[in-house]
């Protein structure tokens, strides 16, 4: 039997909330018998669902933070929103993790303010598991910190190592620094300084990683600032989306191609699943004193389910404790 | 009849030089009857080719700058290299443009040192035409300047407008700033400052462009610093490469899929051509006092041919004169 885990879930976050969120919660509850969900959101949404599901408690919240709202202002003003209520359940120790497919910005602000950082962590970082032709890569920061200092980058790399080794099961993760050339002397002045710091302080550091190598599995963890990381992630997602759109056009272009596409249907679906962000369903916000998973706004039920289950894995892997042990210890002793 | 154009070509640059370069030069000469090529490189390479082709002159160079060499040192030391010889032909007015598929870094350094910048241009920028599902986008800087100042960004945007309108034929190009959110207040402090500057000084400015929107044709020109731009470009290329690799695996996975792939072969080739960097064959280095096109190291003959022809188009469009007129004029009077 797995360790019991309690996750607070924002029932009202995401483009397709609450429908797909509730469906995803239902799937997660049935896939993980040791999961308990605290469902946060409008009473009319969370109460009937909790009443009809085992291991699910309703935590009414009278407000919803919308996607377009200014994150910091919304979190400050909407103290009874599902995002704030969910984070507070983690802070109070009533849940070990929080999942939302709502506003990423509001989740970052609320997690930082209402749950707080792990002692010693300078800034939390948002990570994501990228698919690859050979293997997966953990990539951070993908948007929590648009402006970073040098020492944040080292901590991001350390937190990435913890996640890769304890959640993704990578032994001795190889860490790369996202840069615009492979050689030591390449890149912006900041990237050059970051290279030297990582080389000197992080035993797992293995060199620079170019944008084109992000998906080819040469590194287990790739680290960058939240501006470059967000641009890079969106470029990967955007290119993939464009190519699938163009492929669809190719498939519909003639009778022969329609037939060809029919024969490929099953394997193409597998491919699409492989590269889809729904497979993990969320980005872990590392460095927060509790698990916090942020899902894509466009999450479907599978993504929500997988996001919640990824949160459970992070809780069971004791990622927070390991990060805490690491940032307190000198760089060279990182596990 | 089109205007006569003389392009100096580095015969020894690129992973597959000189074979594919010579083949590409041959194709370009036969496609453009008003093109003349000054072929720079080892005498044993350039002399026999020039002797057997009309409108092609040999310009022997005794040295070759290899891909792995330090750009600035190589350009300084190898004064009789094909890259330096080619740029000097432009400086002396004997050629109007230079094309090389060799070391991008060495081309940037040599073009800046040996040809020089247009008066008023603070830094040259490397641009690229990105394919898209709906239409193309001109994207810069993709790597000439890892560290930039605010006023460089404005000039990059202005030079991008000139290229898009005069070479790509876009009327009233819409300019976007690569950023990590659409709203005015999003992004790093630098990106926020750049947003305000572009909004105030560039009539063509239309707002922030997220990484995911780079390929969807919402903007005609997207501007960023050379670090972010290079990462973004490599991510787009890397994702495309990974997906085609995975597609190939899908196609070979069963008898049915092999048959399906056969039926799709022709249209998939069209798709691959559409998103291939070979279609334009090179990145224009804007802001240099003469045309300079840098090809991919892995260029094939088609890419070399298209790179040379893109250079001709830039010469005939008088891009340099237009940039010169623009940087001398106040921001609001940009064409």
Give the SSE map.
Two copies of one chain form a homodimer.
Chain A: E1 5-10, H1 19-31, E2 35-41, H2 43-51, E3 56-60, H3 71-77, H4 82-91, E4 97-100, H5 104-115, E5 125-130, E6 137-140, H6 150-166, E7 175-179, H7 189-201, E8 205-210, E9 221-223, H8 226-251, H9 255-275, E10 283-286, E11 291-294, H10 301-316, H11 319-328
Helix pairs in contact in A: 1-10, 3-5, 4-5, 6-7, 6-11
Structure summary:
Two copies of one chain form a homodimer. Chain A has 335 residues and is α/β, with parallel strands linked by helices. Chain A has eleven helices and eleven strands.
Explain this structure.
Two copies of one chain form a homodimer. Chain A has an eleven-stranded mixed beta sheet with strand order 3-2-1-4-11-10-5-6-9-7-8, with helices on both faces. Helices cover 46% and strands 16% of the residues of chain A. By secondary structure, the first copy, chain A, is an alpha/beta fold. Chain A is globular, with a radius of gyration of 20 Å. Chain A has eleven helices and eleven strands. The model of chain A is unreliable at 331-335 (pLDDT under 50). At the A-B interface, helix 8 and helix 9 of A face helix 8 and helix 9 of B.
Based on the model shown, name its key terms:
eleven-stranded mixed sheet, disordered C terminus, homodimer, alpha/beta, 11 helices, 16% strand, 335 residues, globular, 46% helix
- Radius of gyration of chain A, rounded? 20 Å
| Topology of chain A as a string of helices (H) and strands (E) | EHEHEHHEHEEHEHEEHHEEHH
Oligomeric state of this protein: homodimer
Helix count of chain A equals: 11
How many runs of DSSP E, i.e. beta strands of chain A? 11
pLDDT under 50 segments of chain A (min length 5)? Answer: 331-335
Helical amount of chain A: 40-55%
Biggest β-sheet: strands ordered side by side in the sheet of chain A: 3-2-1-4-11-10-5-6-9-7-8
Chain pair sharing the greatest interface: A-B, 60 and 60 residues
General form of chain A: globular
Residue-averaged pLDDT of chain A: 93
């Amino acid at each position: 039997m797995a360790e019991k885990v309690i996750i607070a879930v924002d029932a009202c976050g995401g483009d397709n909330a609450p429908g797909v969120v509730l469906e995803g919660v239902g799937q997660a509850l049935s896939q993980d018998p040791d999961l308990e969900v605290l469902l946060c959101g409008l009473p009319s949404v969370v109460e009937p669902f909790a009443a009809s599901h085992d291991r699910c408690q309703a935590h009414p919240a009278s407000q919803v933070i919308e996607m377009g709202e200014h994150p910091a202002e919304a979190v400050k003003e909407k103290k009874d929103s599902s995002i704030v209520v969910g984070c507070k359940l983690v802070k109070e120790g009533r849940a070990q993790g929080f999942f939302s497919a709502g506003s990423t910005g509001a989740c970052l602000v609320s997690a930082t303010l209402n749950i707080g950082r792990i002692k010693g962590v300078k800034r939390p970082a948002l990570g994501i598991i990228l698919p690859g032709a050979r293997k997966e890569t953990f990539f951070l920061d993908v948007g929590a910190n648009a402006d970073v200092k040098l020492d944040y980058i080292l901590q991001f790399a350390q937190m990435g190592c913890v996640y890769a080794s304890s959640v993704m099961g990578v032994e001795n993760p190889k860490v790369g620094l996202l840069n615009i050339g492979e050689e030591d002397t390449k890149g912006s002045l900041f990237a050059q300084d970051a290279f030297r710091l990582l080389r000197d302080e992080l035993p797992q550091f293995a060199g620079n990683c170019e944008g084109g190598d992000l998906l080819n599995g040469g590194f287990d963890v790739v680290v960058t600032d939240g501006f470059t990381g967000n641009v890079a992630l969106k470029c990967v997602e955007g290119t993939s989306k464009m190519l699938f759109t163009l492929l669809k056009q190719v498939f519909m272009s003639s009778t022969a191609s329609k037939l060809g596409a029919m024969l490929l249907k099953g394997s193409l679906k597998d491919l699409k699943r492989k590269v889809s962000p729904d497979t993990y369903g969320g980005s872990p916000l590392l460095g927060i004193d509790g698990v916090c998973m942020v899902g894509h706004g466009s999450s479907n039920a599978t993504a929500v389910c997988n996001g919640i289950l990824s949160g459970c894995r992070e809780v069971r892997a004791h990622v927070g404790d390991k990060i805490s042990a690491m940032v307190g210890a000198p760089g060279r002793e990182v596990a």
